[in-house]
Amino acid sequence: MNNEPNTPRIPLQARKMARWLGWGGILPFLALAMVSAWKGPEWAHTPLIVYAMLILAFMAGAHWFAVVSGHRPSANASAELVLTNILVLGAWPAILMPTAWACIWLAVLFVGHLFLDAPWRHISGPAWYRHMRLGLSTVVITALMLGGLIGLGLQFNQGQV
After folding, report:
1. CA 77 to CA 55: how far, in whole Å?
2. How crowded is residue 64: how many other Cβ atoms within 10 Å of its Cβ?
3. Could you tell me which of 96, 110, 95, 97 has the C-alpha nearest to residue 144?
4. pLDDT (tens digit, 0 to 9) for every residue of the chain, 161 residues total?
5. For the chain, what are the domain ranges?
6. Handedness of CA 61, 64, 65, 71 (dihedral sign)
């Protein structure tokens, strides 16, 4: 039941699907980050970086929609739109970085998006979505950061850093 003011009622089936898709989307982050960190096959590195970039762009697009549709009233709407573009464009260099550094860079960008979106504030959507977003972002940021740091640690131990 949704008893928050000014929040559209979301059918239970849609909420369940959003949760399923959201948490299911975490699996590639966890699997690819760990495979890449532990010097897994080279093919696993590029999909991790590309997947992270796609999800960041998706989240920025969702933020854009919320702002331009009026679902997220903000005195800083123009700045928020520009910042989402900066985050997405800022992800491009990750394609050219070594995997460990790319993971850390993308984790920083996801932190930036998390603070821009601020799911702990009421204007970010219904409570169930805000809680899910905070949990998903925390796992993504942790997976990317740990994958990057483990990868750097392994490189350092092998004298490659």
Report:
1. 22
2. 16
3. 110
4. 444 445 567 788 988 999 999 999 999 989 888 887 777 777 778 888 999 999 999 999 988 888 888 777 777 888 889 999 999 999 999 999 988 899 999 999 999 999 888 867 766 678 888 889 899 999 999 999 988 888 787 767 777 65
5. 18-157
6. positive
